[in-house]
Each structure stands twice: as structure tokens, then as C-alpha cells.
Amino acid sequence: MTDLNEAFEQPLKGVKVLELSQIMAGPTCGLMLADMGAEVFKIEKFPGGDDARNYRREGDSGLPPSFMMLNRGKRSIGINVKTEAGRQALMRMVAQADVLTENFRMGVMERLGLGYETLKEINPALIYCSITGYGRVGPLAHKGGFDMVLQAFSGLISVTGEEGGEPVKPGVSIADVNAGILAAVGILAAYIHRLRTGKGQRIDTSLLQASMQQLYWHAAGYFSRGLIAKPTGTAHPLIAPYQVYRCRDGRLAIGGANQSNWERIADVLGHAEWKSDPRFDTPDLRLTNRKVLADLIEQVLATNDVEHWLSRFDEFSIPAGPVQDVGQALEHEQSRAVRMVVDVEAPGGGTKRALGLPILFNGKTCLASSAPPKVGQNSVEILREFKFTEDEIKVLLKSGAIIQTEAAVSETRSVDAANAAV
To answer: 3-class SS at 75?
Structure first.
């Protein structure tokens, strides 16, 4: 294990989060909050739990790696919120919680009697965060949504891919991940507001908003001149040279984001005359003649390897980097240095590597590194922490409103006895 848990006061220590959300967007939010110190209680249906528990590739065993990545540091309680006893148990937890997250389709929580207007009566300080597909207002608010669907609807897919080619989905779940980040930002802002006023509030974001936020510069072109952006491959819509170029043995990303960088690029490539070439001597002309310039640059880069050119660009402080595959990026020492690759507990013992929190506090972090839970693994201990009595816990288990899949129901009861009670 690395020194993840060195002496460090986590900023959200003691904050209680009830995570009713599942799959990716909501769990991304919960993971970030957990890494900042919050206690995240994963409220799961049973027997299946979070649908992401079933997202497997061929060869996966045990908990799917994709589920483990987003759910470390959390504890699971299995609650059947379709039962009155289950709802009442959850409401008792809400009364003692700080945050609740959910990503159900519009109206589901209200039909369950768990909508914000109901829960804020129980806990006026509650921060209630909803992540939907299209938002909670407007003509499409009733529709469900998935990452790829909202990337398409938002226009994001239409600007991704090679120039002149078909639109392509980005290789990552931008809508889901960004929605989770936006949810965390909203929760933190609401928490600051609560510290000032004592009042909670409802926070809303959606996969649509999370996708459209990525289009700042494309939207600027449309609003100003009616321009409809098209795919440009790795090239930048406003800057050149700024894209990925082929070298003799691989590809190199080069960022000529300003005049100084451009001039140094021309010098390093041995073509100082490009600086005064009437096709390239202003940013607008370089953008207009981007294809011609790219061909000239690649002709030079093709004479040597990526490492050679990277060394040369580094020597002259020109922003450049190799196009690495995911494995190369994860194995690079820089990824470990900034704690984006960390060691966390694995189910059954030992450690596994995971992605860390992309934020450091005074150069430090203290991640939620406990192993991701099985469905309902922590039900009994969580109920105890929320001040349920042993008799109340036994009744909930026996009725089926709560499920405990692992660990003893009490210090004197075995796992077999707990299962028998269910």
C-alpha cells in the first residue's frame, strides 16, 4: 500500500451521503465525495443491487472491475424501498444524513414517497441531488437517458471523429462522468450554503447539461456566426498547429497554441522560413492552411522517432507529448506521482490498483481505499450507526425489507443465523 492514509484531515470528514444512484454518473459523484472524506452509504435494491454489478467482460470474475473502480470506499445496505418498512427505514436514515443522490427517471422517487418535497420535511438541511437524462424541466424531462444517447442529442458526437468521416462517439463516457463531477460540485456549493444558512436544497444536473457543457467553443462559433462545427480529428477548431502528427515510429501531439510556440516549432523542425511564409505567418492563415501545414510538419517528423522529437521539443519548451495507449498512461510514473494511480483494498484481501481523486489538498490526499462491497454487505452495521435497535434490525431482516449478505447480524449471531432470520 502507498501512503494514501498519511496524517491528513479530509475536508468532508463526517458528512453522511445516501447514494441511491447507480451505474456511473451518480457513483462517480459518490466516489469523489468518499475520496474527500464523506461516508457514502450505497442504498441498493436486492438481490441484484446496482445494475453495474452485471457489467462484465469475458474473463471477469467476482465483482466486475468497472463496478469496483467506482464503488471502493463505500458501504452497501440492501433496502427494499417498495415495502413500507423499507421506506420508513430509509426515511429514518434521511433524517440523520447530509446528502442524498439519486438518478431515477422523473417521478420515480415521488411515486415511492421519497421525493424532495417529502424528505425535506423530515430533514430541512438535506441536500438532495438528482441526476437525470434531459433535466427535470422542459418537454423531454420525462424521458430516460443514457450516456451515448445524450452525447448524440447534445451535438457532442457530431463534432467527434475524423474530418470528412462519420460522427464517432468519444471513447469515454463523457456525459456520465461529467454529470457526476457536476453533481459533486453542486453538492459542495449547497453544503457551503447550508453552513451559512442551515438550509438544504435540491441540486439538479443531467447528462444533457453535462454533454453540452463540453461545447463551449463550438457554441461560441454558432452563436456568433451560425457556424455548425464538424469533426476535425485531433485538430483544434481555432488553433494550428495543434493536433497529433505521425513520426517514424508513432504519433506525437504538438501544441502550437500561440505565436511563440509556433516560431519555436518551425525552428526545431529546421524550417525557420515557415515563420515568414505568407501561408502561415498569422494564426488565421495557419488555421486556414492547416492541412498544408500538417503535411509539411509530418514530412519532417517522419525522418525520426517519437522520442527524438519529444526530446527536441522539450529542450525548447514546446508543449508536446506521445500518444500513449491506456496501459502506457496508467503505467507512467507521472500518473503515480500525482496519485491518479493508487493502491486500494481488494475484495478478499490484498490490493488492487485504481484511479485516484484528481484533486490534491496541500499536495496530499487520503482516499477511500476500502474494498467495494457486496450487495447489502454492511446493512446491519449501517443500521446500528443510524441508531436502529437490535430488535428493530431483526424485524427488518425477517420482513425482507432489509437484506444482510455478509458479516454477523450481531456479535453473537453467525452468518448462517442471520440468513436464517431472513
So the answer is: strand
Cell of residue 319, nine digits = 508543449
Return phi, psi of residue 142, to 5°. -75, -15
pTM of the model: 0.92
CA angle 125, 130, 131 (to 5 degrees): 155
Q: What is the DSSP string of 129-166?
A: EEEESS-SSSTTTT----HHHHHHHHTTGGG-SSTTS-
Residue 176 annotated to the active site: yes
Q: Which three cell numbers stand for residue 405?
A: 449478505
The one-character DSSP state at 104 is P
Per-residue pLDDT tens over the stretch 13-46: 999 999 999 999 999 999 999 999 999 999 999 8
Residues 6+ positions from 240 with CB-CB distance below 8 Å: 256, 283, 286, 287, 289, 290, 293, 294
Tally: H helices and E strands in the chain: 18, 12
CA–CA separation, 162 and 179 (whole Å):
26
CA distances for 27 relative to 49, 101, 131, 321, angstroms: 13, 9, 11, 31
Per the document, the length of the chain is 422
Distance CA 42, CA 132 (A): 18
Contacts of 231 (CB under 8 A, 6+ apart): 158, 159, 160, 161, 162, 163, 164, 165, 167, 168
Cell numbers standing for residue 245: 502528427
Say which of 3, 176, 295, 416 is annotated catalytic: 176
Output the pLDDT for position 406.
64
